[in-house]
Amino acid sequence: MGISAPLLVFVVGIANLIVGHFLIEGKRKKISETKGKYIHKWGYSIIATMGIGSLFILDIFDPNVMKWFWLGLLILIIGFQTLLDWKYLKGTKEYLVSLIVLVIGIIYILVVMF
């Protein structure tokens, strides 16, 4: 698996910037500027705790287990982001950016890691 997992973070981040640039006109809105900022913070804190905690339970030296871990974590994180974008950023296309980035991340995992 080597460098493919850290590269996933880079690919998703760059994809978010590029897709956001093409889909969103003007300044992008943030969840932290809405009523959902506390749900956003608590949700990501819970997801991060679960992700880090699962690394102590899983066999991190098994490449197959780690592929599924990254796939599940990506779906959980970006799926949560998409839900918050859809709920709290009405009238924007931010949720579409998140969905497209999720698809790009899943394709990356399936092509490079599997």
TrEMBL record:
Keywords: Membrane, Transmembrane, Transmembrane helix. Signal peptide: none annotated. It comes from the Bacteria. It holds the Pfam family DUF4181. The chain crosses the membrane at residues 6-24, 44-61, 67-84, 96-113. This is DUF4181 domain-containing protein.
